[in-house]
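Translate sequence into C-alpha cells.
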Amino acid sequence: MSPSSIPSPTQRPPDLLGQTVVVLGGSAGIGLETARRARAEGARVVLTGRDPERLRRAAIEIGAASTAAFDATDPGAVERFFGELPGPIDHVMVTAGRPPYGRVLGMDVAQVRRLLDDHLVMAIQVARHAAGKVRPGGALLFMSGTGARRPAIGLALTATLTAALPALVANLALEIAPVRVNVIAAGFVDTPLSADLLGDQLESRRAQLRETLPIRRVVGPADVAALAIHLMVNGALTGATYDVDGGQQLVPA
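Result follows.
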C-alpha cells in the first residue's frame, strides 16, 4: 500500500450519514445549531418553528430538507405534523418554548395550567406521536435547565418543571423503548432567547459568567449541540439527564 492510499487517522465517516433528524424549535439558538451540526454529520434535517420567515431563513442557511411552521404547544398541530411526516425518522430534538418566570401565587389557575401544559404536556404529546415514527434505537431529546434547581423567588414553575421533566423522561424511556429518551439540562446559554430575556443586562451577565464559571467562558449553542449529537449517536444512552452548564451549579448564584 502506498503512503497516499493510507487513510488519515483523523478521517471518519459522518456519524449521522443517511439519518433523519427533526428539530422542533430549530429556527434559532440551540435548535438551529444542533440542526447545523446534524447536517455536518450527514443527516437529513427537518426544521420546525413558529415564525415562518425566520424558519425559511434558517432552512436556507443549513440546507434543511423540509420545514413546518406551527406552535409546538398546540397538541393538534403536533399530532398533524408527525402524522404527515413521511417515512421513518431517526431522532427528534425539542427546543421549543421558553422557561416560565414569575411569582406563582400571582398567577391565576388558568395561566399556571397553561404554562405546565406548554412544557410537560408538550413533551408527552411529542413522545406519543413521535414514538411510531422513530426507528428503534433512535432518540428523543428534550431541553431543561440547571438554574432552577436552586429555589428563588419567581422560579417556582420553572423549578417544578426542572424536577418533573427528568422523571417523565425516565418513564418514557421504558414506555417507548427501544426508542431512547433523554434530557439535556443547560445553564445559561448565549442565545437570542437569552438576549431577549435579559435585555440590557445581557453583557453584565456574560461578564459575570466569564469571571465565575470554572470553564472561564460563556456556554454557547455549539456546546449544547455537541452533546445533542452525542446523545443521538451513542445508542447506549437513555432515560437520563445530562448537564451542560460550564459548572454553573458549582458556584454561588
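Note: The mean pLDDT is 93.
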